[in-house]
Amino acid sequence: MGLDLTVDAVQLTEDLVNIESVSRNEAAIADAIEHALDDLGHLTVVRLGNTIVARTDLGRDERVVIAGHIDTVPVNDNLPARREGGILHGLGTCDMKGGVAIALRTAATLPEPNRDITFVFYECEEIEAEHNGLYKLSLSHPELLEADFAILMEPSDAIVEAGCQGTMRVDVTTRGERAHSARSWMGSNAIHAAADVLSRLNDYEPRRPVIDGLEYREGLNAVYVTGGVAGNVLPDSCTVSVNYRFAPDRSEEEALAHMHEVFEGFDIVVNDTAPAAMPGLSVPAAAAFVEAVGGQVKPKFGWTDVARFSVLGVPAVNFGPGDPHLAHKQEEHVPLAQIESVERELRAWLEA
Amino acid sequence: MGLDLTVDAVQLTEDLVNIESVSRNEAAIADAIEHALDDLGHLTVVRLGNTIVARTDLGRDERVVIAGHIDTVPVNDNLPARREGGILHGLGTCDMKGGVAIALRTAATLPEPNRDITFVFYECEEIEAEHNGLYKLSLSHPELLEADFAILMEPSDAIVEAGCQGTMRVDVTTRGERAHSARSWMGSNAIHAAADVLSRLNDYEPRRPVIDGLEYREGLNAVYVTGGVAGNVLPDSCTVSVNYRFAPDRSEEEALAHMHEVFEGFDIVVNDTAPAAMPGLSVPAAAAFVEAVGGQVKPKFGWTDVARFSVLGVPAVNFGPGDPHLAHKQEEHVPLAQIESVERELRAWLEA
User: Fold this and answer.
1) What percent of chain A has pLDDT over 90?
2) Does A217 touch chain B (CB under 8 A)?
3) Is A222 in CB contact (< 8 Å) with chain B?
């Protein structure tokens, strides 16, 4: 299926939405993007799986990565796209084919930007990290991601959201001894022992550190609790799964040390972890970008792939059309005006 | 298959064990029991499903029920029976074909007992209460269970265990409001709210009331806890399933009122309840029985079908060979000496 990059960004968003691309099913949209970029002639295009990298090579002093994932969460009776007033509705309109459309339009219509650009359109962002196209690229071809700055076009309400908080999930397990509940004095109850874990969560005061002028807000929350053997048995084990969202001034190692501190005396097993990303607004390229797009910037609380750039030493921000709270919702949508404003501001920065 | 009631009680136990009778598969053993009792001539035999009632009708001043269930939990590589030294091993040796054998021997060899006897051999004790043969009989033919006293031949280590504690399971549910765990201040965490439920369980001081000279021991225990929506979501609901074991001086209504008192402020749903049974040792027939079998008596902590007799106004005790802690275990077994002593003592009481 051909993709016409000469249409406007709103129309291009709609065209992209109408190529269904649920995670693991990105071949069609990746083909369309690859061919359209190949046809342009001024970009070096590389494809790895269903991830496409397209680079200018103009010898500019600075290089910026502009990236977006091309997959979506599963279809939920929200295709094809539907335009209503100033809103485009449908799967992927918000998360994040609006941003992808802007990046593709920029690739097509700005052959000589004032900075070299590496466009990355990648697969499998919505599923397990091991399949994530950006992650795989960072392992196999880190040189393709070398840059002074990166813009991830995730929905951010058309305002720059800088850095991102890290996330760690630990299982905190209490132990007991089984016994028949009719003779409970013969055992000890692991669920009762979890009262202490939950009390520590209730008493916990999350930090709100200010970094590069942005106030982050940490959080420590039980997300699962499980325990029990049978309706007449004292359970010998109870597990509280705790999600720690930590600000970018903490590494994963520091976050884990903190978990050991908070849950001292209990068994802890880490079963998921991803680093935070510093906002990096003190880097000249980042500061210039924020200035160019109006100076407004907010901290990013949720985890995004900007953290992958951070690991590579590339400061990165989120900047894209769409309300991030609408991501993954059946009713996701994007205001056409945000697609237009983000494109205009990005373009102005690359033409200045 | 014929059942020879002239063999000794140990041999009869072994013969009964070797007729596999997992719950819902009691037809063969029920047939054998029915025919053997019919052949005796001095008993009126009634069959309802796989439950058999056999009664003397000698016009005695007093009538006693002697009851036992004929089903077992599922086979677990523990058939056929195996005799080793003074122990009989195998499925049902302890729970409770030793007791059933003693009752059958008594039926066969004591045509003129000093009290009228109603023997009850019933199905489906090990599964959902609705299938329980004694329960069904108590609904459809309560007149067949009329008596001054009942002996349930459940394993009790050959000592009288009087009454039984009641049991109630209630779900205590806390509520919250979902939010993404990266923005936890936008919601409220139902698992954290369960800290209060668990603290009340930890602070709870179970009663130890003395009834008819026996000290009972209550217990209040979480047996399950569940909560959680996704690894990055604050849960809006958490349920602690609590099992209350209550002494025979409390009715189910009083037990439930007590749960509302303990968990005031939380939603409570009852999902299982069974009444306690008073030891009833002040009733002359019961006191005489205890005296006849040696005077030793202990409170019964676990729930048994004696509670069904209690509901019918018939005082009842547990008295049978086998360690109750071995019931339902792969390695269940019974000491031959206990089969012999229980039979001897029961017989002496019925012949005195």
Assistant:
1) 87
2) yes
3) yes
What does pLDDT average to over chain B? 95
d(CA B203, CA A191): 14
Strand partners, A118: A55, A65
**What's the pTM value of the predicted model, to 2 decimals?**
0.84
pLDDT at position B129 is 83
Q: Which of A194, A341, A172 is nearest to A242 (CA)?
A: A172
Q: Is A71 a catalytic residue?
A: yes
Averaged pLDDT, A257-269: 97
Q: Are A177 and A188 in contact (CB under 8 A)?
A: yes
* pLDDT tens per residue across span B230-257: 888 999 999 999 999 999 999 999 999 9
Mean pLDDT of chain A: 95
Residue A328 dihedral angles phi and psi, to the nearest 5°: 75, 5
Whether the predicted pLDDT of A1 surpasses 80: no
Catalytic residue among A15, A34, A71, A116: A71
Strand (E) or helix (H) holding A291: helix A284-292
Tokens standing for residue B102: 């003693």
Q: Which of B125, B148, B212, B343 is catalytic?
A: B125
CA A29 from chain center: how many Å?
Answer: 20
User: Which amino acid is present at A314?
Assistant: V
- 10 Å CB burial of residue B316 (0-12, 13-18, 19+) is buried
Q: Are B152 and B304 spatial neighbours (Cβ–Cβ below 8 Å)? A: yes
Q: Which among A225, A231, A243 has the least Cβ separation from residue B272?
A: A231
C-alpha torsion angle, residues B289, B290, B292, B293 (rounded to 10): 120
ipTM: 0.85
Looking at the complex, does the CB of residue B222 fall below 8 Å from at least one CB of chain A? yes
Q: What is the pLDDT of residue A48?
A: 97
In one-letter notation, the amino acid at residue A315 is P
> What type of residue sits at position A150?
A
Of B192, B217, B302, nearest to A180 by CB-CB distance is B302
Indicate yes or no: CB of A181 within 8 angstroms of CB of B222: no
Active site includes B196? no
A118 DSSP 8-state letter? E
Q: Which residues contact A135 (CB under 8 A, 6 or more apart)?
A: A129, A305, A308
Tell the residue number behind the tokens 């342009």, with chain if given.
Answer: A40
